[in-house]
Amino acid sequence: MHSNVQVIGVLGGKGGTGKTTIALSIAYLLAKMKHDVVYIDADVDNPSSKVFMEQVEIVKELKAFIPSIDTRKCTGCSICVRNCPENALVAPPGRPPSLIAELCNGCTICKIVCPHDAVKEDYRIMGYIWRGKLKDLVVIGGEIVPGDERSPLVAHLLIDYVKDNVKNKILLVDCPPGAGSIISEVLNISNIVLVITEPTPMGIHDLKLVLDLNKRFKRQCIIVVNKVGEFDGWESFIREVWEIAKGLPFVYTLTMVPYDEVVHTAYSSGDLNKLMDEKRPFYRVINSLARLVEGVFND
To answer: Which of 46, 69, 79, 108 has its CA at a distance of 20 to 30 angstroms from the CA of residue 278?
Structure first.
């Protein structure tokens, strides 16, 4: 990735905070401001930004190694069975092994340890990288094949693809929920991060997890509290978020986004016009956020 590329990481901890709604809206507004931006949907289990796309095309199949046993060479020694870390190979004594494909993680250890060259290379498709368009905004995302459990690997391959192929000046990376390894990778390449939370006990809990993870990377951080006003007692949660934030030197500012049922239905139906209705408070706050991010990059 070129050194002058600016990367915005958007993190959310728990799912359902409105992370994608906010991330996609900011990316759309930055593109509307004529910035050279691309939106990366790294939530490969649920790439919900696709509901807004005017067009989508598959640009790459993501293939994973699976072993194919050459029964003419296999002696039934079971060395591959004993060394498989996922127990994906099973065999009766003295017989060639069978593969439980759902358990195979593609590590190739079976091929490496086989003394008879009986393990041949085969593959299966575990996911895709896709490209979409939303007005002036280019969107690139990953999606796992239903039933496959290697979401982190698919997300990492998406980021590798972006590093090698995407030349835009601004990348906005919408991360999956949680605080797994892909979050660390995005934090590592980010210039600034937006942490999206909500005024609920679980939202505060996951906010702490993400901020603790960022202590290692010390990326400049904007905390966005979404859905303010949806739940009773939100004021006390805002105070708690502020107490957390003011003790962290990497927190740039804290922003509140009011709850709006129209925004919720617009997102669910993929209605961009409703989502970006300039008369609604949501738009005004998101537009200010986009300007804030723009200002941070220009400083």
So the answer is: 46
In the chain, domain spans: 6-61+130-298, 71-117
Q: Is the torsion defined by CA of 133, 136, 142, 146 positive or negative?
A: negative
Residue ranges in the chain assigned as alpha helix (H): 19-32, 79-83, 109-113, 151-165, 181-189, 201-217, 234-246, 261-269, 272-275, 281-298
Q: Which fold has domain 6-61+130-298?
A: Rossmann fold (3.40.50)
Q: Write the CATH number of the domain with boundaries 71-117.
A: 3.30.70.20
DSSP annotation string for 148-211? ---HHHHHHHHHHHHHHH---SEEEEEPPSBSSHHHHHHHHH-SEEEEEE-SSHHHHHHHHHHH
Residues 217, 250: Cα–Cα separation, whole Å: 10
3-state secondary structure of 239: helix
Confidence (pTM): 0.88
The string of pLDDT tens digits covering residues 251-298 is 988 999 999 999 989 988 999 889 999 999 999 999 999 999 988 877
Q: Give 174-193 pLDDT, tens digit per residue.
A: 999 887 888 999 999 999 99
Measured CA to CA, the distance from residue 14 to residue 201 in angstroms comes to 11
Task: Assess contact for 217 and 191: CB atoms under 8 A.
Answer: no
105-162 pLDDT, tens digit per residue, is 888 999 999 999 999 999 999 999 999 999 999 999 999 999 888 888 899 999 999 9
SS3 280: coil
